[in-house]
Every structure is written in C-alpha cells, then in structure tokens.
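Final report, Chapter 2: Outcomes

The project's central promise was a pipeline that accepts a single protein chain and returns its three-dimensional structure in a standardized token representation, suitable for archiving and comparison. That pipeline is now operational. To close this chapter, we reproduce one record exactly as it appears in the project archive, with the input sequence first and the structure output second.
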Amino acid sequence: GTHLTPKLSWFNPLDIPSFSLFIAAMILMIFIYWGWDTTVSVNEETADRHRTPGRAAVISTVLLLVTYVLVSMAAQSFAGVGDKGIGLANGDNSNDVISVLGHAVFGHSWVGSVFTHLLLLMVLSSAAASTQTTILPTARASLAMAVYKALPSAFARIHPRYLTPSVSTVVMGTASGVIYVSLNYLSAGSVISDSVTACGIFIALYYGITGFACAWYFRRTLTKNARDLWMQGILPVLGGLILFFVGGWSFYLDYKTTGDDEASYTFPHIPGLGNIGGVSVIVVVSAVVGLAVMIAYWIARPAFFRGEVLTKSTPTIMVEDTGVGQSPM
C-alpha cells in the first residue's frame, strides 16, 4: 500500500529538507490563516464587542489549526506521498485531491457515492465561507478608511436594511472576483499559486506592522505587569519580526525563480533583471499601483495624510456620526 504511519518527526520543524521549503510553507500558512480574524473586523455588530470578537478570533484559529492538522495527517497517512495512484504527489490529482481521496475512502457503491458528494459539498461550502473572510475584512477596512477620510465617502455608505457597508462590500467582492477570473483566464491558472504567495507576502507585511504598532501604542503601559509586557510588547514584536523575515525571505527566494507554478517574466531591456519570478512581479506591480493610488488621493484629499483627521485624541467615530448618507442599494 501507499499509506504512511504517522510519526512524531512530522511535527519537527527542524526535520525538513531545506530552510527554503520551511519558509515556503510558512508563507502558505500565513495566507491560509489570513481572514480568520474577521470577527475582530465586525466587533461593532456583536454582543459584548469588547470581549466576544477577540475570543472568537482565538478560538476559531485554534479550531482551524486542529482541523488542518487532523485532515493533513489523515490524508498523508491514508494516501501517502507517492506520485502514482492516489498518492498526494501525483500531478494528475493536484487539482482535486479531495475527490480522489473521497472515492478511495468511501468506495464506489451508491452509499460511497453519497458520502463522496457530501464531502465535496462540505468542501464547497467551506470554500464559499472562505471567500467571505476575504471580502468582510477588506470591506470593513475600507469602511473605516472612508469614515476617517482616507477613502472617498461612498465607501462609508451603510445599507438601510442590513446595516452593513454596502458600497465597500460590493466593490471589494467585485474586485476580488474580477482579479481572480482574469488572472485564471489569461494565464490558464499558471499564476494563481504565485498570486497566493504574493498575497501571503503582503499579509506578512501588514500583520507584521500591526504587531509593531501594538507595542508602540501600549509602550507607556508595557511595564505595568508581566501580562501586559508579554501580550502587548514581547509577543507582538516577536510576531512582527517573524512575519517580516518570512515575507522578505519568500520574496528573495522567488525573485530569481519561476514561482510556484513556473510563471515568469523576462525584462531584456532592463539591465540586471532578466528573468524574474512571477511572485516578485506581482508583488512589485501591486505595490506600485497601490502607492500610485494612495499618492493621488493624498494630493486630492490631504487631510487624513496630514494627521488632521485621526489623532490620539480622536474619539471613536461611528458611521452614523459622519453625516454620510445611507446607500440606496
């Protein structure tokens, strides 16, 4: 058979073929866990908003970790890592591992078929929920930015019935769908994996900044007690350093490679560049476009960027306090 017997060495981070593979796995995990802090982004819509969202974020992350570990161990133990048959390294199964394993586990009888299709339905519903974790935080972030005049006020419009940021949700959902479909269509799927890695690098960047910002914000109370020192200082800074290192190392690894899906770009007219990995191209182009948009809005509406809107003394602003009209959508 192709199965493997679980071993404790599977959990040893030092027992890996190379450090580069460890970093590649880390950046993938950063992308996978991204979005599971969505509950923190909707804290104003929950009961006991000062405690429930934080607890929900921690509990959901722990449950996600346990689920991933159990599923990964079960799949690897049952199918093995061979490149034949149901082996996880079989390139023919890379786009549909769950379906292949479902048929192998449940069999091909009518009962097995029912369970296999139920498994696929569960995966699809989970995927749909995951897409929502992409839209929700970005919609709430753009809502907050609009309230504090870092984005056009239209992004702060609230749906009169559902009381959610209507324009932000539609714009972010549409943008995500258009970008995904266009990349998948134009490249026949060859840059999707590179896009995941590039997205992971950006996530590491802004999550890392959040860790440093946490320590800086609470800098005057860090020595109040041991708990505050660890929770508001040491752990956030350590997390920020790890995320910055992983993101930077991942960018370095992909700079002169062809990326996860062998997507690469050649720049013959630019000395010293030559063949550049797809991940690096996506990161640089996205950063340049984002900076250009930010600078343009900075010039058009400079109040936020001058520190005139959001300061240490600024009270928490609710959308209904901004005078922004409700969305007719």
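Archive annotation: Confidence is low (pLDDT under 50) at residues 324-329.
This record, like all others produced under the grant, will remain available to the consortium after the project formally closes.
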